[in-house]
C-alpha cells in the first residue's frame, strides 16, 4: 500500500495548509478556498470534518509516511439523490503522478460502499484536468458525459466531465 486514508486530526492542519497554498491545486478545485491557505484555515476545515455526520460526510486525510499529503471526501446528496454521493479530492503537488490518488480513491470507495447505503459515487472534474479524469478511469469509474460550460473558474466558463461508480461495480 502506497498510502492510507484516515480520519482527520487537528495536527494535520499545517500539512493541509502547505498543500493548499498552491495555485496549481486551487485551479483544479471549486472556489471558496482562501489563498494563501493558512494553518488556521486548516484547523477550521478539519474541525468541521471531525464534527460532521459520519453517515453524510466521509472525509479523510491521505497519508504517506505518516504525513497528511492530501484530502479526499465523499459527500452524500439529498432528497431523491440521498443514496448518491459526490467524490472530491486533491493531493500536494510533490505527490502528483505517483499512483497515490488512485489508491486513495479506491480505498474511499470501498469504505463508503461497505459502511453505508450509498449506491452511486460520482465525480465532476474539470474537463481540462486530464490527470484527475485518468485517476477515476483507473479505479473503474464510468465516463457519463461532458457537462458543457458547467462552471466558471478563474473568470472562464469551463466544461466538466461526469464520472460514476456504482456499488455493483466494485
From TrEMBL:
<dbReference type="InterPro" id="IPR016181">
    <property type="entry name" value="Acyl_CoA_acyltransferase"/>
</dbReference>
<feature type="domain" description="N-acetyltransferase">
    <location>
        <begin position="11"/>
        <end position="165"/>
    </location>
</feature>
<dbReference type="GO" id="GO:0016747">
    <property type="term" value="F:acyltransferase activity, transferring groups other than amino-acyl groups"/>
</dbReference>
<protein>
    <submittedName>
        <fullName>N-acetyltransferase</fullName>
    </submittedName>
</protein>
<dbReference type="Pfam" id="PF13302">
    <property type="entry name" value="Acetyltransf_3"/>
</dbReference>
<dbReference type="InterPro" id="IPR000182">
    <property type="entry name" value="GNAT_dom"/>
</dbReference>
Amino acid at each position: 500500500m502506497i498510502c492510507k486514508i484516515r480520519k482527520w486530526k487537528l495536527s494535520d492542519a499545517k500539512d493541509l495548509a502547505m498543500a493548499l497554498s498552491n495555485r496549481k491545486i486551487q485551479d483544479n478545485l471549486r472556489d471558496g478556498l482562501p489563498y494563501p491557505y493558512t494553518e488556521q484555515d486548516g484547523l477550521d476545515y478539519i474541525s468541521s470534518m471531525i464534527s460532521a455526520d459520519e453517515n453524510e460526510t466521509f472525509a479523510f486525510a491521505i497519508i504517506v509516511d505518516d504525513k497528511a499529503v492530501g484530502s479526499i471526501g465523499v459527500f452524500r446528496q439529498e432528497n431523491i439523490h440521498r443514496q448518491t454521493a459526490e467524490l472530491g479530492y486533491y493531493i500536494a503537488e510533490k505527490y502528483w503522478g505517483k499512483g497515490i490518488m488512485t489508491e486513495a480513491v479506491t480505498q474511499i470507495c470501498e469504505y463508503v460502499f461497505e459502511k453505508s447505503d450509498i449506491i452511486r459515487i460520482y465525480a465532476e472534474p474539470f474537463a481540462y484536468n486530464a490527470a484527475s479524469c485518468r485517476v477515476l478511469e483507473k479505479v473503474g469509474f464510468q465516463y457519463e458525459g461532458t457537462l458543457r460550460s458547467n462552471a466558471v473558474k478563474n473568470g472562464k466558463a469551463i466544461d466538466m466531465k461526469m464520472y460514476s461508480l456504482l456499488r455493483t461495480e466494485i
